Amino acid sequence: MAARMHNTNLTDDQDCILEPLCFPDHLSASVCPSSDVHPLTCMLCPDTFSSSEKDQLLKHMVLDHKLVISDVKLIADFPRYVLYWKKRFTEQPITDFCSVIKTNSEGPVEQQEHYFLLCDALPEDRILREQLQQRRLEDVLDQQQKEREDTTFHRTCMFCNEEFTGNRSLLLNHMAKEHSFSIGLPDNIVYCTKFLDTLEWKLENMQCLYCEKTFRDKTTLKDHMRKKQHRRINARNHDYDRFYVINYLELGKTWEEVQSEDDRDLLEDEDDDWSDWQAHPVCAVCLFCEQQADTMDKLYTHMKESHEFDLQKLKLDLNLKFYQQVKLVNYIRRELHQCRCYGCQEKFVTKEELVQHLVNTGHAMQLPEVSHWDQPQYYFPTYENDALLTALSDSESESEGPKHSCDVPVIAEDISNLKLLKQTSVLNKLLKDKGSSS
Fold it and tell me: What are the E-state strand segments in 149-302?
């Protein structure tokens, strides 16, 4: 089964996937435009607006063209969204995409107006919004990774003027430990420099970081923040949402909504009868070619014999836990999709040339440093329907945990013989030893 590689309309020097990839059993989505951010242009006329005039553009489209876009705040990249639909409206009539709403339907004809609603009830619009969300998430994760690896950071603490050079985490951990001011774990933050600039601007303008009241001088501000325990940011201030990675994970949800979701909703149908459920074969696809297999043993054997790649050996040698295996598979899938050798980073024109290179050079088993691929962005499947991910298993060291923990006492669930348990209790022995020593 061939792994369908979607056209991403990108040049060779760009390394991103704009939409979820799928193996051929699933329908593919059209590719959203990949252009740089331009001034906002009306979807239906040549009028243009600056990137900061989003509301004026929306007002213009409603008043002049009777076009309404639903849930604008949930569109991850509004300029690209506008460019996409501007092109589509030149190809087909607007009524092919939009719902038509008639106002004053019972009044005189001359007083009736028709408005056009563009919303995600249209599958094409929904797919576009999801693609833009995915692209933004990839951009954010790339930015976060750059910040985590950056060692050129230099900044002064906003509370004590101590200077920090190196990684951003040094300053953030210092503020949390020494000044009881925490904005979260460094690994959860993105655009950190801009975040710190925003906080410093507030302090320089005598503004409390939590309640955002303004004071006459720094001394009064410091006393207020200390006495009121306002040395923190207000989680309800959504201006801070852009600095936390979790806000980019799910379309249209803030971090508070994600955290407050009740898992009990998943258990509504507890009485469902699963007696007629039957498992289906794995049908996983090889990492390097179109070969698929209905068992993991067959797939492991194929990759070992045909491509000299032994996933089981890597799992044991590196002691890979389940989620590390997931990230490794997603990393390799992504590198092969980009036609790039993960062993030496050489680029190829076709995937077939790359696969032959891996065999000829022995690079199939030559992985980069673990830190290169053991990254959060590789939790996300490169292919949405990758059955190989669901068939992975824990390493031998994990499955045989008790063998490595033989010194840890294990108490069985059946504790009916309480008298014997008390006599052999470690606590009882300690009490006896304490009594004899006194």
Answer: 153-156, 163-166, 284-285, 292-293
pLDDT tens figures, 252-288: 555 455 445 444 444 444 454 545 545 455 578 899 9
d(CA 142, CA 17): 12
Alpha-helical segments (H) within 288-438: 296-307, 311-317, 322-337, 351-361, 370-373, 387-390, 396-399, 401-404, 418-423, 426-437
Q: Is 386 helix (H, G, I), strand (E, B) or coil?
A: coil
- The per-residue pLDDT for 266 is 41
Q: Is the pLDDT of residue 430 over 50?
A: yes
In the predicted model, what is the mean pLDDT of residues 332-358? 92
Token pair in block for residue 343: 């062993």
In whole angstroms, what is the distance from residue 44 CA to residue 86 CA?
A: 7
Q: What is the secondary structure of 219-256 as a DSSP string? A: HHHHHHHHHTT--S--TT-GGGGGGBGGGGTSTT--HH
Helices (H), 340-413: 351-361, 370-373, 387-390, 396-399, 401-404
Model confidence, pTM = 0.45
**How far, in Å, CA of 196 to CA of 175, rounded?**
12
Question: What are the CA-CA distances from residue 56 to residues 53, 71, 82 (Å)?
Answer: 5, 16, 14
- CA 418 – CA 427 distance, rounded (Å): 14
Contacts of 368 (CB under 8 A, 6+ apart): 342, 343
Residues 223-254 have pLDDT tens digits of 888 888 888 888 788 888 888 888 787 655 55
Nearest residue to 340 via CA among 66, 12, 70: 12
193 — pLDDT class (breaks 50, 70, 90): very high
Reference 119, options 155, 71, 80, 180; nearest CA is 71
Q: Decide: helix, strand or coil at residue 211.
A: coil
Q: How far apart, in whole angstroms, are the C-alpha atoms of residue 105 and residue 92?
A: 26
